[in-house]
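Progress note, sequence design subtask.
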């Protein structure tokens, strides 16, 4: 039997791994891996990133919303750091810094858009795994050409 202290350390490592897989899935365009990061029903608050409303619903639809923008970009790189986690039984709260680079070749202007800030994630244990049930992105700074995100979404939609 694992001691309580070791269980907390194991849980914290597994929880951080969820956010690492999330970032990697986006950058590798691995939508099934991204889907595995979430509970079936979830909430996402990206209003500080310019999303109009808090999303609440099926994770499949949220993954599709991410795919519809990211797939149209040439490359992304999402880095997370300074993970701070609190575990309470089968629930956890993770806060982690984020820096995300988005690149799309354009004829004029900057081809990059970078933002920084932090994620706040609520996670639930699902069997042996942890999954994100709710999360928010707080953007604290950005630079570059944000319009490449709109262009990428149009490209992904085939327009």
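Output:
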């Amino acid at each position: 039997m694992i001691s309580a202290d070791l269980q907390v350390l194991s849980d914290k490592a597994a929880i951080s791994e969820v956010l690492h897989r999330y970032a990697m899935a986006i950058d590798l365009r691995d939508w099934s891996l991204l889907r595995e990061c979430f509970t079936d029903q979830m909430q996402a608050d990206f209003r500080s990133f310019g999303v109009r409303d808090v999303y609440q619903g099926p994770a499949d639809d949220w993954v599709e919303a991410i795919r519809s923008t990211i797939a149209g970009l040439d490359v992304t790189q999402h880095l997370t750091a300074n993970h701070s986690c609190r575990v309470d039984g089968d629930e956890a709260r993770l806060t982690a810094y984020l820096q995300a680079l988005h690149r799309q070749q354009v004829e004029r202007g900057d081809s990059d858009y970078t933002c920084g800030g932090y994620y706040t994630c609520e996670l639930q244990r699902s069997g042996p795994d942890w999954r994100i049930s709710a999360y928010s992105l707080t953007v604290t700074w950005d630079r570059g050409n944000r319009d490449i995100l709109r262009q990428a979404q149009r490209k992904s939609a085939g327009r």
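Helices lie at 4-28, 31-35, 59-70, 147-156. Work on this subtask will continue into the next period as scheduled.
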